[in-house]
Structure formats: structure tokens, C-alpha cells
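Both lines are quoted verbatim for reference:

——
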Amino acid sequence: MKIALVHDSISEFGGAERVLEALLEIWPRAPIYTAFYKKGPAWDRFKDKEVHVSWANSIPFFATKLHSPFRFLAPLIWNSFNLSKYDIVISSSSWYITKGFGGRRDGPVEICYCHTPPRWLYGYETPVKKNWLVKSYILVVAHFVRMYDWKAAQKVNYFVANSENVKKRIQKFYKREAVVIYPPVEVGWGNKGSGGKKGDYYLVVSRITGGKGIEMAVKAANKLKVPLKIVGVASGYSDTCEWVKKNAGLTVEMLGYVKDPELARLYVGAKAFLALSPDEDFGITPVEAMSYGTPVIAYRSGGYLETVVEGKTGIFFDEYTVEGLIRGIREVGKIRVREEDCRVQARKFSKERFKKGMKEFVEKTFKERK
């Protein structure tokens, strides 16, 4: 079985890249095809793998500045790869329309692991600041890109969604069915960190960009004068990082990118984890937090509804405002959260379950197609 992995891009390191890592643990010799590959947090993770980049990678500044405004080039990028020699192509798809490699009798079978249909195409909040110029650009370009996205989705042989939330989006926008295999979470760390002393700080782990609720967390910490630690690096064209540096009070600490052992220590010591993205596709970080016995304060929406058990592993707040978050912070102190309950819930989303589910699905698909 010859397998190729296709991934949006390799630059930052987040949940989609953890999925790619887990797929490579199942099929370590599978080559990676990607739009561009730049040095950054993800570089060291994949530098020993066979990585094929598109022609766009050779364009000056494409990987750093031009890929977002020129995302309409995605069809030309993905159509430039010849994947006909493979039996199975597993596409890891979200914002860059990374799909459409199957659908031919003499070509590979495509299994699309869909993190979400592109949020910017279908009206969901994104990190991009929308001034009148950006809104006009999207209005013109998005129509044609949506047409391509639809056609590419019809060429996918099988969709795998990362949550029930995304499964509904796939059915809504592509009129396709999908099976759900939750993404891999490193819940094993929690066993190493169990029994650690809880601190008095709240924790956010996220790309530092718009649409993640980071500004709201900073404002709440400033008002309550409670410690807040923020893990993550600046992403895209957002000025969120500069905003935090300018507006953070004395209790707010920006830690930047931290390696996994340090991240584990931060999870263990947190009083609670803040999950603040509106309509999150799935949300790996709240599950990571629970794996350390740390309760979650989450906005009641999206994938958080599939992972956090209200009153048992955390609480939800309903009003997406600073005041709503403050009520959530106060409410979580009124409930008794058992660390073991959090860890048991997190194990439902372990990397082992992801790898087992994907391996069985791919092998079954290959046998049926033969």
C-alpha cells in the first residue's frame, strides 16, 4: 500500500501538525506534499521526513507574507502535484483547500481528514482583520474559490471529520457524509504530571492571533488582577501580539513557544484552562489540559461541547464578553473537579485511539478498493 500525506503547509505547529505527526507514526515512510515549508516551530518536527514542496515555495516571501492574500492560487498549487503512483492519498485539510486528489478510476483513493471546510469561505470567524479592502477582496475572490472547493470536495472518496461539529459542516457545505475520528491528544503526559501542585494562574495555549479570545482573557485578568499565562507565538497578519504587549497588566505573562516538557508543567500547575475560540472546530488544547487534571472554562460552542463535561471537568459560559468570562472564572471555583475525572475524559481522545481508528479505516478502504 503506497501512501502519500498531503498537508496545507508546514510553518507553525498546532493541532493540524499534531495530526500529521501521528499519521507519520502510523506510516513513517509516507512522503509529505505541502504548499510551502518554512523554518519555525514545526521545522524540527519534520526535517527528517521526505517533504515535497510546491512551486510556490520558491517564490520570494510566499511562505511568510504572500500565501494568505494569494490563497486563490491553491488550485494551481495542488494540481501541480502528480500523485498517480500512490494507492492512498490522505489529505489533511483546513484553510488551504487541500483536497481533490481522488475521484479517478486510475488514480489514488483520497481520504480527506477534514479539520474544517475553510472558515474564511463559509462565514466563520478567522484571524484576518476585515477592513473594507479585505472585505471587497474576499467578496470577489471567495465566490470563485468556493466553486473550486465544492468541486474538489466531490473528488474526495472518503471524508473523515475531526468532530461531530465539522461532520455537520461537511454535510452542509459539501453534501457529503463523513465518519468522525477525533484528533490525537498527548494524554500520556498527564500521567507523568499527575499529583503536581496546582498554582493560582489561568492558562491559554493558542496561536497569538485574532479570533482566539486572547484579548478577552487579558481584559478579564486585568479586571480581576489574577495571574494569566499565555503560551503561543504570533500568527498571520494579526496585531493581537502587539495588542497584548501594550495592554497586558502586571499579572499577564506571555511565554511564547514552549517545548512539550515545559508545556506539561504549565498544564499541571494551572488553576484552570481557558478555551475561548468562538465555534472552535474541535479544540485539542482543552483536552490536553484535562489530561493533567486541570479543569476547563470554555465558551459554550463548537467542538468544546464534545469534550468538556459541564460540572465535572469544567464549566461553560454563554455570553461571549469579558463579563461572561469573569462569571465563568468565578463559577469554576464553586464546583469540585476531580483530577481523575478530567484524565478519564481526556483518554477518550488519546493518540492511540486516533492511530487505531485511522489505521483500521485506511486498511479497510484499501481492501475494499482492491
